[in-house]
Amino acid sequence: MKIRIRFWWWVIIGTLLFSLLGVKAQPPSRVHADVMTLVGLGPRVAGTPTIQKARDYLLAEYRESGYVTEVGTFTYPKFLDNGSNLLVNNAQLDGRALVGSRAGKLQAPLIGVPGVGKPDEFAAVNVKNAIAIVRRGEIRFLDKARNAQNAGAVGLVIVNTSSGELAGTLGGEVNIPVFSLSGERGEPLLKKALVSRLEATLNVNTQGGKVTGYNAIAHKPGVTSPRILLGGHYDSVLGSPGANDNASGTAVVLELARRLANTPLANQIWFVAFDGEEDGLHGSKAFVNSASPEFLKGLQAMLNFDMVGVNEKLLVGGTSELTALATKADPKISTFRDTGNSDHQSFTSAGVPAIFFYRGQDPNYHSPNDTQVDPKLLEATVEAANRIIQERLAQN
User: Fold this and answer.
1) Strand pairing of 155-159 and 315-318?
2) Each residue of 356-394: pLDDT tens digit?
3) Residue 6's pLDDT band (boundaries 50, 70, 90)?
4) pLDDT tens-digit series, residues 29-53
5) Which CATH number does the domain 30-78+210-394 belong to among 1.25.40.10, 1.10.10.60, 3.40.50.2000, 3.40.630.10?
């Protein structure tokens, strides 16, 4: 009994000392909890019930912090894969057509191409009237496909370099079917095709469809002309829970809204979770296209967050005046050559200054393994963005 009394006595003393010193136990990270909630729903593919659950979760969280919410509804054509496969020696290998691939069923030799599908690598083998098979990496899917087509191939198979399915988009027209295999299925086949002649049947079964998307929008009551817009896409690709791409950016925007909720800054900002980014920036395009010229002209900055939960270095790209502001506000931030493949592009195309927060490529990108992010990196992104927001609003 005496030992037990002494134990609790020291617990009480320790608690009082920590209280007097102002030391508080660190609460669980809200921003990380938001990511894991979204991941727990499953892949958030545009047009599915899962992304509607994600939308409802986000809207409820914004309302909890005192914001009014809106849903921006839009439709867009979507490429549908109704079950594509590759048949080799009577064994069927299921995979995916790349978005934008033409449909077709053809039987031809399967020829392995060394490297990643550059023109000189196709020149090293004869793929005329054959189905070429290459590894993912280094160059765009569209370039691989056009190089295969120019070399005379009648079809192309791209093998993922990591586990899981490859969800890719061509982003341009080619006249041959383009199909992808997971690393587990494709790598052994590629090795065989590099050393021996195989006969294969490629079946790319695709069609066009239409999808309804939902942008989740939040702002303080009466705020119709914001000076800053914070955004990130909340959809993911088929088969991927999308922790880093892009529950991370979605959660950062939500956490910034919470932290700013009771400050005057909240009356100058809109917060948007964009849908349909993975299919071609459709949500942000729809938002910009539906906004009035006066609304867009009043925006002094759009901050876009995409893949900010993996890799230590925080990178920014976009409008030069904003990237300069960011590196000045936080010297740990570096700039990178922005190719515009995220939602900020829709705003810069409309003349709105925009900045893109990013932490570089993730080995689990667009795969079933995109399930984890680093809470410290999320918090660091929130802190950096908060400083930049305050700096930008202080300029005018």
Assistant:
1) unpaired
2) 999 999 999 988 999 999 999 999 999 999 999 999 998
3) very low
4) 899 999 999 999 999 999 999 999 9
5) 3.40.630.10
Cα–Cα distance list, 249 to 78, 253, 278, 396 (Å)? 24, 6, 14, 27
185-229 confidence digits (pLDDT tens): 889 999 999 999 899 999 998 887 789 999 999 999 999 999 999
Extents of the domains making up the chain: 30-78+210-394, 83-204
Q: How far apart are CA 50 and CA 326, in angstroms?
A: 35
- What is residue 100's DSSP assignment? T
Backbone angle region of 22, left / alpha / beta, with phi > 0 → left and psi within -120 to 50 → alpha: left
CATH numeric code, 83-204: 3.50.30.30
Chain-centre distance for alpha carbon 194: 33
Please name the residue ranges forming H helices in 21-48. 30-41
> What is the model's pTM?
0.71
pLDDT value of residue 26: 42
Residue 202 to residue 109: CA distance in whole angstroms:
10
Q: Give the whole-angstrom CA distance, residue 297 versus residue 286.
A: 17
